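Working notes for the structural subgroup meeting. M.R. asked for a predicted model of this chain before we commit to crystallization trials. I am recording the input and output together here so anyone reviewing the notebook later can reproduce the run.

Input as submitted:
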Amino acid sequence: MRRTHWIAGLVIAGLITAHAQQQGRFDVRSFGAAGDGKAIDTDAINKAIEAAVGAGGGTVVFHHGTYLAGSIHLKSHVALFIDQGATIEAGPIDKAPCDAPEPNQWDKFQDFGHSHWHNSLMWGENLDDVAIYGTGTIHGSTLNRSANANSPAGTGNKAIALKNSRNVTIRDITISHGGHFAILATGVDNLTVDNVKIDTNRDGIDVDACRNVRISNMTVNSPFDDGICLKSSYGLGVARATENVTITNCQVSGFDEGTYLDGTFTRTVKYGGARDTGPTGRIKFGTESSGGFKNVTITNSVFTYCRGLAIETVDGGDTEDITIDNITMRDIANAPIFIRRGNRARTPGEPPPGTLRRVNISNIVASGVRDQQGILISGIPNYPIEDVRLSNIRIHYTGGGTSADAALEPEEKEKDYPEPNMFGRLPTYALFARHLLGFDVREADFSFDKSEARPAVQLRDVVRVDMENIRAQKPGTDTHELLKPVHLAKAVKETF
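Returned structure, recorded in token form:
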């Protein structure tokens, strides 16, 4: 009787599994996954994915449970659905190793993490029509935030990595402790990332050499590195632009790791240390910029307890046609807006500086901005940034600059890694701009808390300047004054 019941149970389970597969859904438990947080489920998960591939495509399902795994191999025409209460977790590297980093002859031109994709919890290469979605979690508990070629075998440093792929959707999931990159997309065209929550120990999402990208409704907390970062490295062996990108309705922050997800929003990552820059977070273009950035729009986003917006092109790529609108910022560690054209030239052949032109930034409100730097826009001698327009800008700084600060002469540092703090304290509290060709500022208001001895604005080597309706708090007073309109063919060194 027991044998009869056992056989009947197998038949029923087989029928249920077959029915599910016929519906295009492949439950990883049907392929041997335990989901108990103890067993290693890597093989079962990859078998379920291969079964979906064999059926011509489908959805691999993770129901409630914790699935410990090493590298999961994403495939074309296959989606992963991570259900509410389900967690895919990076297992111990001795039992659930990630794949080894693949060779890359171009790896000296960008960081190790940008040069390899296989050493990840989930990875895919040369894929079409891939999705990762659901309200479950990916937890990279054993992922390394700074893995390199000398790391122990089995070490992974990315939660999700995709290379040279098309038509990719990542939606609604949560990623915690994602390693060097929670999401790395390189050479991915037609990428949609929507309503994803990331609370991690380094970069949230890096979009590298990608085209036709839509990022929306994301929240990224990353105290020690960038939140949402556009890059254009040489990792693919070609200088490929990141272009046609929209980023909207997003939030970035630098609270302690994990405290966004648990709702405590703790702030123990303090200003100080070697770089004196505080928490990172933020939205940034660069640093890798071999291919440049083109046709990018960022709108309706919030920065909290992190660094400010950064647009950096330093490796020879062209950055053109950038629109940024409707951004609010609070408690910002450095320049609320940083635009840099430099000459690091970390690209084969050491090309000359790429262009940086046609940048419109409007409707920015910021408060609690630290006193090191105000808005900072800097090209380099003979290679100006071109056609920058700022409009409807309201920024309240902490203040505290001295008369000695007002006399500072920031170095050029043409080849340095681009960060606002590379220039140290600035001689102005609100806006410092140099090496520009075409600079318009309309409708701006600058103020501060603590006593401030520095002037509001200084322009150096700026050709074709138009500034109107600029209201700034006067150094040493509580008085705001409307600056006289400025219309100059060239500002060699003008202070306001």
